[in-house]
Each structure stands twice: as C-alpha cells, then as structure tokens.
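W.,

You were right to be curious about this one. When I first looked at the sequence I had no strong expectations either way, so I just let the prediction run and decided to look at it fresh. Below is the sequence, 420 residues in total, followed by the output.
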Amino acid sequence: MKSIIAATTLATAAAVSQQGLEAVQRDGLSSDSTMGRQLLSQARRVEDGNNQYNQNDMSWVGGFSIKFTGCHTVTQWINEQNNDNDGNADANNAAYDPTNGKIESVQLVRFRLCPRDSCFDHFNVGCSKHYGEYVVGLDSFLQAYVAYEKEASETGCEAYRQTCYNKCDQSNKPMCWYNCYKGYGINSAMCNNYDENGQYYEGLMDMEQAIQCSAYDTGADAQVDEYGNEVVQHYLGPMCSGQGGTVTLGLFDDDGCQVKSDKTVAYYQKNYGAKYIPHTSESIISTNCLSCLAADEDAANGNADYYNYDADGNKNYYEANNVNSLCATAYLASGKCEKELDSSEVMYPEEGACTYLEGVKRLKEDGIIRGNETVTSKPASIAIAFFTGAACLLAGYVGYLKHKIQKSRVNLAGVTTSLA
C-alpha cells in the first residue's frame, strides 16, 4: 500500500518537487510571501523539552470532512524584482520599490472542515456548526486534490484500461474514453496516461499538466483559419467560474493563465477537431464532503514530516498520524478561521484569517476585497420589500377606513339635524 504524501512533498503522481511544495507551505496563498505569511496565523505551539521546535497536533482533522465551498478571484498588487545589468534579481531593492510591480489576479479556494457525522453533500457549506473555515491558493489546493483523486482512482483506472482501449483506440468519437470510464463510475481525467508497464494511452487527458497552465493544442494545422484570422497559441488552465463558483478548465492567451481567451475549447473541438477536454463546464473539484481520515495505517504515514511557517517565519511541525494527504496539505497551506470549532475538539483555534475570509466572501467581479461593505442578501432584500409593501398597503387601507368612518359621521349628523 502506498503511503500518503507529506506536506513537504505532494504525491508522486503530482510530480511536484519538495522545494516547490516547501515554497507553497512557506508562502501560503500566492507567490507573494508577505500576503501568505500574514494569513498563516500563529500556529498552535507546544515546545518540546529541548525548545528546539514547535510541535503541534493536527490529528483532530481526521475526525472531520473537507467541503469545497467556492472559488474566488482576487485582484492584488504583485511586486516584481528589480534586475541588474546582467539580468540577475536584486533582492535588496525588490521589496521596497512600489513602482516595480503589476496588478495580477490570484485565484483562491474556500473550504470548510466539518465534523464527519454532520457534513452534508447537499448543503452548500457542508455544516452549520462546529466547523473551521479556510482559504488557500487554487494551485496548491488543486495539486493536492488531483493527487488525492488519482490515488483513489488508480485501481479502477487500471481495471478498465484495456476494456476502454479496445473500445476507443480506433474510435473517432472525441468523448469515447471519457464515456467508457464514466460507465464504470470512473472519472477518466483522474487516470494516468501511462499504465503500470509504461505504455502511453493517447486518449486520456493529463489533468496534472492541465492544471499547471500548459500549451493547448488547437488542432489547427495552419497559422490562419478559413476566415484569415490568425490562430494564436492558447494555454489551458484552471479558472473560477465566477466569484464563489466552481473550478473549471478554460483557455487563456498568456502562459501565466491571467488573460482569459475569447475562444473556448468547444470552438476548437468543433472547428478543428481538437482533443476532447473534460471539466470545461463541470467542476474539477467535487462539492461532496470528503473524509479527512486516512484509509489505513500505511496511508496515514505516521512518519510524515508535516510543517508550515507562521507569520514570524518560525517553522511549526504537526503530528497528523490519521489525516489523509488532501486535508493535511490543504490545512497547512491555508489561512484559518476556527472560531466556530468546538473547544472540546481544538484547544487553541486559529483566527488569523477570519477578517480576510469575510472580505473574500464579499468579492465582486472586479476582485477587490472590501472589508467594510455591508453584505447584501437577495432573500432578505425580497423579504424587506414584501413587508414594506404590505405595510404601505395596510396604511392605505387604514386611511381608507378612517375616511369612510368620518364620512359616515358627517352623514349621520345631517340626518339628525333634519329630524330635529
């Protein structure tokens, strides 16, 4: 049985180097280390007998389920490094030159940790009490999620690989592999391109490569299309489908996947016969509650070296003998708001990212965080409008009755005068 990944190295299937993951842990939500370290609040600290490092307990996470609650795009200022005449980065000046930077979109994932026995798939946020809320960079979360799903799908992928190959190798249907595996309850996007013997299967998509913003094969042989328009190079990468929406794959016009293309994958499939790409409309990340409990002792990997850095740059180690790789990696790289957690579960909840999370929830299309705006609720607005209208109608009716009564009194007074 394969061991789960440590937070210092993602699963082998994810092909992410230890150095790269260490940067993710250190910097947290983006390549901007200042932002990441501010959101990674002070970790729970329990010094060991020699005071050499901080030892923290993350085992409680094994009793929870992770629930994806939305993807957001944040607009922020990224400070770029100055270069000397030789093109080398000048580290001394980079952090202090406010004119040397650019506005960049950073994609974030919000998720909750809910108690396993009270996390519900149909509930958008999973649970309503005793939960922790977290925010983490989309790239970090996706790498951990895809590695986790590929590990979980490995047995099924191999079991039906030959069957689907026999059915789809000579097929001209672009969705053949996808539909074949789907018939067995397997997402083909989470299957490896290579089998255990190293044989490559062209019909399968490499999801690990797709989520890393890779060059997209449009299927066009010429440099211009039939209308004389230039066929430009596009890049395939993950994107948020609106603020608080799901995570899908889409096309971009730059190799950093910042500028969304006006062309779609469906366009190139229809006009140029490009390869079918799943998850261009359906979310890559499941909205179901996924248990954080490791499947068995081997998967728990008690010797894993889990750690992150706090806001002061201190290295904080975690014990997580029963926590699977997805939850451990996402938890360590996230900004945390644990004020709703049951104090009997977690003695020292972290609340360093609560304010930031509230700002993320209020994001509009421009991606600018507004921490002091009033949150509007459509149902509440409808209710207010209804009761305001009802109150106006009632006031009008009361006025009408008052007028009728006064008129009746006048008529009655006239009748009395006549009788006299």
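Here's what jumped out at me. Confidence is low (pLDDT under 50) at residues 1-54, 82-99, 298-303, 371-375. And, maybe more interesting for your project: The chain has eleven helices and 13 strands.

Coffee later to discuss?

I.
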